[in-house]
From TrEMBL:
Domain of life of the source: Eukaryota
Entry coiled-coil feature ranges: none
Species the sequence originates in: Escallonia herrerae
Record's keyword annotation contains Membrane: no
Classification of source organism: Eukaryota, Viridiplantae, Streptophyta, Embryophyta, Tracheophyta
Keywords: Glycoprotein, Signal
Gene3D superfamilies: Cupredoxins - blue copper proteins (2.60.40.420)
Annotated protein name in UniProt: L-ascorbate oxidase
Domain Plastocyanin-like: start-end pairs: 41-154, 167-301, 382-519
Family: Belongs to the multicopper oxidase family.
Membrane recorded as keyword: no
CDD domains: CuRO_1_AAO_like_1 (cd13846)
Amino acid sequence: MGLGAMGKTVLLHLLVSMFLGFWSLSLVKADDPYLYYTWTVTYGTASPLGVPQQVILINGQFPGPKLDVVTNNNIVLNLFNKLDQPFLLTWNGIKQRKNSWQDGLMGTNCPIPPNSNFTYKFQPKDQIGGYTYFPSTLMHKAAGGFGALNVYARPRIPVPYPLPAGDFTLLIGDWYKTSHKALQQYLDSGRTLPFPDGVLINGQTQSSFSGDQGKTYMFRISNVGLSNSLNFKIQGHTLKLVEVEGSNTIQNTYDSLDVHVGQSVSVLVMLDQPPKDYYIVASTRFTKQVLTATSVLHYTNSKTSVSGPVPVDATYRLHWSMQQARTFRWNLTSNAARPNPQGSYHYGKITTTRTIVLSNSAPVINGKQRYAVNRVSYINADTPLKLADYFNIPGVFSLDSIQGVPSGGPAYIATSVMPASLHDFIEVVFQNNENTMQSWHLDGYDFWVVGYGSGQWTQASRKGYNLVDALTRHTAQVYPNSWTTILVSLDNQGMWNLRSAIWERQYLGQQFYLRVYNPIQNLANEYGIPTNALLCGKAVGRHP
Ligand SMILES: *[C@@H]1O[C@H](CO)[C@@H](O)[C@H](O)[C@H]1NC(C)=O
Ligand SMILES: *[C@@H]1O[C@H](CO)[C@@H](O)[C@H](O)[C@H]1NC(C)=O
């Protein structure tokens, strides 16, 4: 399904922003089209691994509907919650410029109560690329509610590759037969999640994608799973990497690609093989037992079904994976959402104003398994931090609740918020002293991933940074007993979640909020509270 399908699934209005009460602070350009959606979230039954189980549907679909939009479109999405629990969706990788009000997390929004609704209004401002959305509440993500969110370049912005003959979206992820409530119960009772039961591709184990021999197709691949890095390959074909979370890349060719939890990549695949059917494979990485999902690449002139062994990569290829990550580079001469080269911003020449070192850990607190960052295991407050901040409600969070460097001592539970100044340019080192894979996601931004290394990061590690053509993305992996460094330009005011994309870890505390702040309140820096904001906790009765 390509851009052509867009018109079928959405109602597209071209309205002057004057007409619309929503964008009361009309910083939005009048000519950006409005896309209206009404989504209803319900429970349903599906059998993705052959046995019926409860799943979360959006408008009856599992996975949820694909959102195909264009850079700067105004999305107005009214979400009705028909579950028996409060619910929110978050738009993974949509930067929500000046607008953390729409981020859809427990720190930014009141959850939508059962039988209630909330209308999200947001714009993928100056963004292109393949993204996803998913539930941010409880363990709902384990039951579905996720989907693809593809942001296409505006027609007058050329993409740095020939237009593919078709565009396929593949949501890959590990999967449990156990319900989200039972999985939550595991975690609430102090246990960790068991090993998953399988891997799904678009919510199934037997999908198929058809294309014509000799033509080239785009595959947009996102890891929407809970815990496991996945290796992706197509039997007999190579993958030409063209885009990673909004960055147009140097177009290297790979036999397989590692996609870590929360990440997205787009590749071009030329159907240049003899006409038959080929396996598309997603298999778990770095696990003793390897779980594999296959689907089929079908040549339209094929008369032969898939055959031969399913090609699965060896599992423990940590060094290989780190080496591969280093080959992901920005194409400096291509443009992205705007008609200027990506390399026109010389990130490597900017002096960093601050270094933050974040060390993850897996402490037991009060007899229960938790996860922590710099010794703090995050817990949601009764009031979204963004609302507490806006209404000046005391006692919800404090700005000295987490340190910017690791320190010794026992881990503890707190609602951790780290202060940062608007327009700072920061270096963040993710130091992973655990023997497991990590995946870190920052909302509100994309960041340059400048280095991956083994062991302890030191100041000398900076010598190995890529300060020329590192790509920007929203989720970075950290290998076991290793570090990853990112550079972030803090140009987006708001309350932004920095979390483990590994869902069990974020649920049990491996996250905090970065409050990017400027003491001078100015609507040019940040939008005001939406008039339809839901109020809860200590914000009940306040007036937006
Ligand atoms: C809930 O939906 C109604 C339309 O059915 C809409 O008028 C209202 O603004 C929505 N509520 C919120 C909080 O967005
Ligand atoms: C980078 O982008 C340019 C401009 O769109 C394109 O012509 C070129 O082939 C790309 N280079 C690589 C190495 O991918």
